[in-house]
Design goal:
80% helix, 3 helices, mainly alpha
Length: 89
């Protein structure tokens, strides 16, 4: 197996890993965000809103991991070409 082919496969596996790790993060983030929305709605009378960033951090992290995973899976060949641009086949 040539180095470029091996790098392409390994980058796809890395992208799959990011994607799989992003799914539970996204689910946790959605649950945390819905809990934040419920707390903010219920505490509207007292004007004490919980910190939005605390509850949305895992949502943003999950979305970022999913996006990076999808990018690495789809564009792995482009990434390999950037990494091995000076090396001949």
């Amino acid at each position: 197996m040539k180095p470029k082919q091996l790098a392409n496969v390994l980058i796809k596996i890395l992208g799959l890993s990011f994607f799989i790790r992003g799914i539970p993060e996204l689910i946790t983030g959605v649950l945390n965000f819905s809990a934040w929305a419920g707390i903010a709605f219920n505490s509207a009378a007292s004007h004490s809103y919980p910190n939005f960033m605390f509850y949305s951090g895992t949502l943003i992290a999950g979305l970022a991991q999913l996006a990076i995973g999808i990018f690495l899976i789809i564009r792995s060949r482009c990434v390999v070409e950037k990494l091995f641009k000076d090396e001949e086949e």
